[in-house]
Write a structure and sequence with these properties.
Number of helices: 6
Strand content: 25-35%
CATH class of the largest domain: Alpha Beta
Structural class: alpha+beta
CATH architecture of the largest domain: Alpha-Beta Complex
Order of helices and strands: EEEHHHEEEEEHHHEEEEE
Helix content: 25-40%
């Protein structure tokens, strides 16, 4: 299944994208805030999050982490009816962030991704969700990365693209694959070459195959959208109609 987002600009720094099926919410924000805003964002973080922020070697990366995490807390708090600093977060078995049990109301699931100074957040109720965002650019080693991590089918499609379409094709493939493994919650433990996604510019966003299962029967839906000029993102969410299949790589 594929879909397109209706994206509209709202006040301040936030852009909101919504899909017509109402299955999930998307929020896209800028991370390039001034010093005062970064200090205010830092005040919303937990002690552990502040420690993580302090481990970044570069101020730019530290700022991006702080603002992205504070934005997540604000968005979660608005849906939970609590203060941002009261949101209790934890990491899943493979590092996927989740709400701690005491904060989990209404079976809220979420995921986030950021690239450069842009972040995207995805929220759903009762269904796992994954999101990934990348700035589209030419990669000197794009062919090598595709050969190593894309499936055979994906690599053949990528290499068959016109040179001017390859950067977009590469990152459409990459974000769709990353969103899928993030939705699964398996992170790097699920081989990227064990499933196929569509990637050619102009084609619908689809999961084509997972192991020996056809994409339309895998129990997941894939959406792709461009939140801002020069960026591409993908969202994968559990299918509400088809029974979810316990996926295992071949």
């Amino acid at each position: 299944m594929s879909g397109k987002a209706s994206v509209f600009v709202v006040p301040a720094r936030e852009v909101t994208a919504s899909f017509v099926n109402g299955a999930f919410e998307l929020f896209v924000t800028r991370l390039d805030l001034g010093p005062e805003a970064v200090r205010a964002a830092t005040a919303l973080l937990s002690e552990e999050e502040r420690r993580k922020a302090g481990r970044f070697a570069f101020d730019r990366d530290r700022r991006r982490f702080v603002v992205a995490r504070a934005g997540l807390r604000e968005l979660l708090a608005a849906r939970l009816g609590i203060r941002p600093e009261s949101v209790e977060l934890m990491d899943g078995p493979h590092g996927k962030p989740a709400l701690a049990q005491e904060s989990c109301r209404g079976d809220l699931r979420f995921n986030l991704s950021h690239s450069e100074d842009v972040a995207v957040y995805a929220f759903a109720r009762g269904r796992e969700i994954g999101v990934d965002l990348e700035a589209v650019r030419a990669l000197p080693d794009g062919d090598d990365i595709a050969a190593r991590f894309f499936s055979v089918r994906e690599n053949e499609t990528y290499r068959g693209l016109d040179a001017r379409d390859q950067p977009l094709g590469f990152f459409q493939c990459w974000t769709r694959k990353e969103a899928f493994v993030k939705a699964l919650g398996d992170g790097l433990y699920y081989p990227l070459d064990s499933f196929d996604v569509s990637l050619a510019p102009g084609e619908p966003a689809q999961i084509l195959r997972t192991g020996n299962i056809a994409g339309e029967h895998c129990g997941w839906q894939l959406f792709s959208f461009a939140p801002l000029a020069g960026f591409i993102a993908a969202v994968v969410i559990e299918d509400p109609v088809r029974k979810r299949i316990a996926l295992r790589p071949l």
